[in-house]
Amino acid sequence: MIYMNEVSKVYSSGSVALSDITVEIGKGEFVFVVGPSGAGKSTFIKLILREELPTSGRLVVNGRSLLEMPSNQVPYLRRGLGIVFQDYRLLPNKTVYDNVAFAMQVIESSRREMQKRVHNVLDLVGLRHKVRTYPSELSGGEQQRVAIARAIVNNPAIVIADEPTGNLDPETSWEIMKVFDTINKAGTTIVMATHDKTVVDAMRKRVIAIEKGRIVRDQVKGVYGYEN
Ligand code: ADP
Ligand code: ADP
Fold first, then answer.
1. Which residues form the ABC transporter domain (predicted)?
2. Based on the domain organization, do 138 and 177 belong to the same domain?
3. Which residue has the CA at smallest separation from atom 15 of ligand 2?
4. Do 128 and 163 belong to one domain?
5. Which of 81, 104, 200, 206 has CA 20 to 30 A from 216's CA?
6. What burial class does residue 200 get, using C-beta atoms within 10 Å of its C-beta: 0-12 exposed, 13-18 middle, 19+ buried?
7. What does the pLDDT look like over 65-92, one tens digit per residue?
8. Ligand 2 near 36 CB (within 6 A)
C-alpha cells in the first residue's frame, strides 16, 4: 500500500524533516506514527498525500510512484485516500448529510445510490440521526465522526489521520478509536500520527516512532514510548 525507500525531505528553508526513511505499510495494517514535536510526523503524512514531494528516494502509494507522478494525476491518488484532521475541517454551512455527500465522487451513481452510501457511512459512525444537523450543533466527537464518514465515503484503500483525537477528551477519543478500529477490521489500511499515549498503549497496533527525521523504532504490537 505504502512503500518508502531511502526517502528524505529537506524543506527549502534547509530544515531536514526526514532522513533516509525506508518502510513498508501493507494492506489492512493499522499503524501509529509517534514521536516528539518536530520529529517529522506531519511531513511523513504530507508525503503520502503528496502535499509535499520527497527531496530524494522512492515513494509508492497505492501502486503509484509519487516522484514521477504528474500533477494532473494527484486527484486520482487522493481519491484512493481518506483523510482525517485534528480540527475536523467540516464545511460549516452544510449539513452533516451534505458534508459527506459533497466529498463523494459521483461516478455515474444515481442520487438514490448516493443517499444509500451516505446513510451507510453515517450508520457506521453512529450518526444517522444527525443527517440534517449543522456542524456547529455537534460536539467535537460527533464532528470527528462526520469527518470520518466523509473520509470513507469513497471506499478508500487507505485512511490517513493526523492527530484525530488531539481536540477530544479521553472518553470521546476512545469512541473515535473504536470507529477507526471498525474501519480497519473491514480491510482499510490506517496510518495515524498521534500524541495520544493512552490510545496507542491500549490499542497495541504497529508503532513507527520517528525522532529527528529518522525511524528509531518499528514495533508490531507497540507502545507509545514517550512521556507526555
Ligand atoms: P512533527 O509533525 O513531528 O511535529 P513536522 O513534520 O511538522 O514534525 O516537522 C519536521 C521538521 O520540519 C521540523 O523541524 C519543522 O520545523 C520542519 N518543517 C515542517 N514543515 C515545514 C515547512 N513547510 N517548511 C520548512 N520547515 C518545515
Ligand atoms: P503539527 O504540530 O501538526 O506537527 P506543526 O506545528 O509542526 O504541526 O506545523 C504546523 C504547520 O506549519 C504545518 O503546515 C507545517 O508544514 C508548517 N511548519 C512547521 N514548521 C515550519 C517551519 N519551520 N517553517 C515553515 N512552516 C512550518
1. 2-227
2. no
3. 42
4. no
5. 81
6. buried
7. 999 999 999 999 998 999 999 999 999 9
8. no
